[in-house]
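Hey, can you fold this one?
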Amino acid sequence: MKRFTMILCLLLMTAGSASAAVTAREIDYRSGDTTLKGYLASDSDIQGQRPGILVVHEWWGLNDYARMRARMLAELGYTALAVDMYGDGKTATHPDTAAKFSSAVTEDFPVAQKRFMAGLEVLKQQPTVDPEKIAAIGYCFGGGIVLGMARSGVDIDGVVSFHGTLGVGPKAKPGTIKTRILVLNGADDPFVTVEQIASFKHEMDEAGADYRIINYPGAKHSFTNPQADEFGRKFELPLAYNARADRESWQAMQDFFKEIFRD
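Sure. Predicted structure:
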């Protein structure tokens, strides 16, 4: 935990200007009968509207890691909403529980769509957000979710998947995908096989998608999360933090945002 706290502080210090006045708060919203508990972050020193970014959590749920990434995006000058895909702010601390929560969402894709779109509407309604400039990022489970939303035709500027699964949602049909796609993958991630990557590329090519995949050599699953080593040891999972891949993938995301939000 001490190592996670130290790395978290370093990430926040290097995310943007030290003078940035980032404010963050919990925000409740709904999808049908389900209460969702998100986390909204922005820089109060910035005047006017700016692009908005949705952050979709790992299979652990909307925990401190997802909140950290939302604040880091606010440091970069965006308004970020870390969404709650499980409902009632549920989080998991054991893989069995995380698998149960994540499967319940990915196996009922219409529910996933409704919860994602509910978060999207909340983000667009924020006075600090330009509703015409929206992107979404996701980690692991969340990476799969944002790719699934792209497949379904969500009309936003871009999605970024960090070490995410590649097969969430129905396969894209030609002309369906309206958003640009960036996939940031660990080359040594056993959960994302060479065959899966080839299948994903074929699907994207057939759909006419504007996409890019970057593989980071030596990076395993969950390479952006400073707690990955601890989780890997504790639960005997092939997880590992990779500082270089974390840094380079975060920069790749920033470069991508500059491209898609260019006036």
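The chain has a mean pLDDT of 93. Let me know if you want another pass with a different chain boundary.
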